[in-house]
Amino acid sequence: MASSSGTKKYPPRLYEIGITPIQSRSMNHSCFLSNLQVMKESVGEDVWLELRESAVGVIIKLKELEYTWSAKHVHYFLVNQLAIQCSHEVWSLIEDQPLRFSLYEFEDITGLNCDPFDTQEQWDVAHEDFWVEMKVPISEGPKLNELQALFPIIRNWPREKRVMVGLLCLLSIGIFGISSNSRIPLHLAKRVMDPAAFQRHF
Predict the structure, then answer these.
(1) Is residue 87 assigned to a domain?
(2) 57 Cβ contact partners less than 8 Å away, ≥ 6 residues apart
(3) Residue 22 placed within a domain
(4) Helix axes 36-43, 45-52, angle to 10 degrees
(5) pTM
(6) Which of 38, 42, 43, 101 could staple 162 via S-S, CB 3.0–4.6 A?
């Protein structure tokens, strides 16, 4: 919106110029798409192709494109945010021009499910036997390093179980971008055992 003087007015900045958060640890430090190569060799070509077409298959496609994540550019975008009251949009002022990035653009670019979660959903699945087989505590989600420890043995596992291990790896590496020693939230990790529930959420 322009004022009578022709000067454009925007909402205030979220951070004052010169007083912005430093670029600290972020997804850039833990999201190594190169980790997917060993997973590919372990789950097998048939499962890899199935994972590529899954709800989170965009992570594999980024790996195949040799995509490089630039934390510096993302940091610049975030520290120039405008203070707006909209939970699904980020507005930034770049070179005095407003730039919007919302869940709509994110969904268009990635193909990931950005629909609202069904807060009334009553869902669960018996995961304990598979967790025991993976040597993961049944009350917690797995860590990437626990999943990687399975790679030498899962080549002989049934396709369905190799798919589940592959999906868990994609969640850890590409969706959550967490440290290999951090656990995937249990309520989300269990969804790999139910394709329909996984598709609804991711």
Answers:
(1) no
(2) 51
(3) no
(4) 120
(5) 0.81
(6) 43
Q: How many domains does the chain have?
A: 1
Enumerate residues 6+ apart whose C-beta is below 8 A from 53: none
Q: Report how far apart the first and last C-alpha atoms of the chain are (Å, whole number).
A: 37
- What is d(CA 37, CA 180) in angstroms, rounded to the nearest whole number? 15
The per-residue pLDDT for range 119-148, each reduced to its tens digit, is: 888 999 999 999 999 999 999 999 999 999
For residue 183, pLDDT over 60 is answered with yes
pLDDT band at 69 (very low <50, low <70, confident <90, very high): low
- Strand 97-102 with 89-94, pairing: antiparallel
Residue 15 included in any domain: no
Write phi, then psi, for 81 (nearest 5 degrees). Answer: -65, 150
Domain that holds residue 37: 27-68+118-201
Domain-located, residue 192:
yes
Region 36-62: mean pLDDT is 94
